[in-house]
Amino acid sequence: MRRMAHARRDLSDDGGLAPEIGWSEPGSFGWGVFHERHPRLVRQLREDLPLGAGQAEALDALVAETLGGVVAPMGADAVEWEGWGQGRFGRPWREASFLWAESCFYRRLLEAVGYFGTGAWRGVDPFGPAKEAELQGSVVDEELAALDGLGDADVDEAQRRDALLAASLWGNRADLGFLMTAGGAGASGDSAGHGLVADDRAQLWAHLERRRGGLVIVVADNAGRELLPDLVLVDHLLRGGLAAQVVLHVKPQPYYVSDATTDDVVAALRRLRGAGTEAAAQVGRRLWECAAEGLLVVRAHPFACAPSAYTGMPEDLAAEFAGAALTVLKGDLNYRRLVQDRHWPATLPFAEATAYFPGPVASLRTLKSEVVVGLEPGTVRRMDAAGAPWRTAGTHALVQFRS
């Protein structure tokens, strides 16, 4: 116990930390997000939505403000941001960390389109058309049809569960905001573990077997093509008895383009139930029933949209995580928040970086930003020597676990 307290003090207090990852240095990944991805996103919203002149002007002003201005105050409705602001309002955007600035941008984007207002656009997800188009696409039909093959007699349990885990892991590449600027992700990665820079699958499954029948929390990332395999994995955990209950955490409001909300969960379950393939339809029907029986619970905590690491999570959320047999954090943003989005050495042990987290934790993440920990020195040397942007291109992934 003394050792864990020491690790928490080293990695979550103000002193002795690696620097936060910024975004204002030309050529950095964060610089590209603000100078290229965000302007492109605004143009895409204009194509997808019948925005009025005032909304378009507000979006353009937001982009200009981020690139050369100071952080303007939030609207009166942004109560949580009074604490999350951390003294950054009124200071140049370029001084804020990448994690904080990117989160603030998306909150302000919602204000610009009227999501929090009193008019007709109140509560309208500006990313809804893109999410719906992806969810109803033919690619999803093909992916759902693949579930039929997992029921074959010659597919053993280990193969089946690893295939479902891999689908959930690599489904993270279906991030609409990422694909807008990356032109699609690479083809590496499959159930055999190709493309994995860290692979704790065996430890993860062994832990779930030891804690069989407990509470499993899944903190979702993206909607659509990522959320569907997440739900299929949840069905597997419940159906096989590895979890007695699954709590699925989603965002309380739209966030990073394709982040999952409760509406997206409902849409995904309907897509499963109405699938043309029987295996997918059965998953949808079972999960619908699990929701009615309280075995699948959807939760949307305000901290899901906080611009900070999980080291600052409120007590009620920490208590919930502490009571789970396992918390699974999906995706790149959750990983950044888990390890604090700092310039850690890539070889910093995952267990050390996450020692503060209250309970067993696992990360399923496709790499689409700079931070990474828990890698073997040889892996880092090999990946760096290849000369490709392996940390940000979405071509590699990891499964990391700490008991």
Automatic annotation (TrEMBL):
Name the domain of life this protein comes from.
Bacteria
> Which reactions appear under catalytic activity for this entry?
beta-D-fructose 6-phosphate = dihydroxyacetone + D-glyceraldehyde 3-phosphate; beta-D-fructose 1-phosphate + H2O = D-fructose + phosphate
Q: Which Pfam families match?
A: ARMT1-like_dom
Could you tell me the keywords of this UniProt record?
Hydrolase, Manganese, Metal-binding
* InterPro entries in the record: ARMT-1-like_metal-bd_sf, ARMT1, ARMT1-like_metal-bd
Q: Does the keyword Repeat apply?
A: no
Which residues are in the Damage-control phosphatase ARMT1-like metal-binding domain? 34-379
Q: Which cofactor does it need?
A: Mn(2+)
Parts of the chain that traverse the membrane: none
Q: Which family does it belong to?
A: Belongs to the damage-control phosphatase family. Sugar phosphate phosphatase III subfamily.
What protein name applies here? Damage-control phosphatase ARMT1 family protein
State the species of origin.
Answer: Yinghuangia aomiensis
